[in-house]
């Protein structure tokens, strides 16, 4: 699957490459959203400055190759996102957060991913986990497992459905057979170089899809080597409604989330200028942030459709 370019907004909009969701596929396991960006010189792109905004019914997974991002959320968490370290935020019934690249960042390069929460867990308490996986080293390859189990290593980060998330760096021409859970479907995102996945060659920013099968995925790096993210999980098995920053189960539910966020960030009909003045509610108040909160866009004229 090939990505489409999406501007994140602002006068010098940072552009990301989005491969999930798309017409051909909405989910890979519970993975429901994948933005891949960079390497972008911050002096040209303006970096990342995403003011407080809301989420429901999902977990965000932040993974960097280069740069540094400051995270703040309404559950009181304040952390840095750095290369090789995963930050997982659970929105559950509702959270708001901001993400801003730091002053020391000259180049920004990474991936922002979302995981849909199953119905039984989507009203969970908001939460946050940080984990720095150890580097695994093999014959012509290196890797870090940030979610689930791969290459004999298991991440301690908790998820609400079976998931896999790992970064692999392959030397030129290396063949790496991966033993995987045969009940999982997988996606292989190519960050740099090229890689052949079960006989199909993927280039930078492509996302190769592998359905559940015999429990082995064969990766073959191209002449320049490759760096990839391997994502996986059991087929989600539930319909979701995803719009803007919300994952819900119906149009009316998502419209209700939007109304609640707008009520928190407006005063006398106008969006407030300082996030510290946001009214308390479902999405809370981001601790220590003073950026202008992001208002929700207007809902489309048609009713939101389910994704399966």
Automatic annotation (TrEMBL):
Cofactor(s) demanded: Fe cation
Cofactor binding mode and count: Binds 1 Fe cation per subunit.
Domain Pirin N-terminal: 15-115
Binding site for Fe cation: 53, 55, 97, 99
Molecular functions (GO terms): metal ion binding
Entry superkingdom: Bacteria
Xref: Pfam families: Pirin, Pirin_C
Keywords associated with the record: Iron, Metal-binding
Domain called Pirin C-terminal: residue spans: 167-263
Gene3D superfamilies, per the entry: Jelly Rolls
Family, similarity comment: Belongs to the pirin family.
Name of the featured protein: Pirin family protein
Classification lineage: Bacteria, Bacillati, Actinomycetota, Actinomycetes, Propionibacteriales
């Amino acid at each position: 699957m090939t990505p489409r370019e999406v501007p994140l907004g602002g006068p010098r909009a940072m552009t990301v490459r989005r491969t999930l969701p798309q017409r051909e596929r909405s989910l890979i396991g519970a993975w429901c959203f994948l933005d891949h960006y960079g390497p972008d010189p911050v002096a040209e792109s303006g970096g990342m400055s995403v003011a407080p905004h809301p989420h429901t019914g999902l977990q965000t997974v932040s993974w960097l190759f280069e740069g540094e991002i400051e995270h703040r959320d309404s559950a009181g968490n304040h952390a840095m996102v750095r290369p090789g370290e995963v930050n997982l935020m659970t929105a559950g019934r509702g959270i708001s957060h901001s993400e801003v690249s730091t002053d020391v960042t000259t180049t920004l390069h990474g991936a922002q991913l979302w995981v849909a929460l199953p119905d039984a867990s989507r009203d969970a308490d908001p939460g946050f986990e940080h984990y720095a996986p150890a580097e695994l080293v093999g014959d012509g390859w290196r890797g870090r497992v940030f979610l689930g189990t791969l290459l004999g290593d298991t991440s301690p980060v908790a998820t609400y459905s079976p998931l896999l998330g790992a970064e692999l760096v392959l030397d030129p021409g290396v063949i790496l057979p991966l033993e995987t859970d045969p009940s999982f479907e997988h996606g292989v995102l190519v960050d740099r170089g090229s890689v052949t996945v079960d006989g199909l060659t993927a280039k930078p920013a492509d996302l190769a899809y592998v359905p559940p099968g015999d429990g082995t995925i064969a990766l073959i790096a191209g002449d320049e080597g490759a760096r990839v993210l391997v994502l996986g999980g059991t087929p989600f098995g539930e319909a979701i409604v995803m719009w803007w920053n919300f994952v819900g189960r119906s149009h009316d539910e998502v419209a209700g989330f939007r109304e609640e966020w707008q009520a928190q960030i407006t005063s006398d009909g106008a969006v407030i200028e300082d996030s510290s003045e946001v009214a308390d509610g479902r999405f809370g108040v981001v601790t220590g942030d003073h950026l202008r909160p992001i208002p929700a866009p207007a809902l489309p004229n048609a009713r939101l459709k389910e994704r399966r």
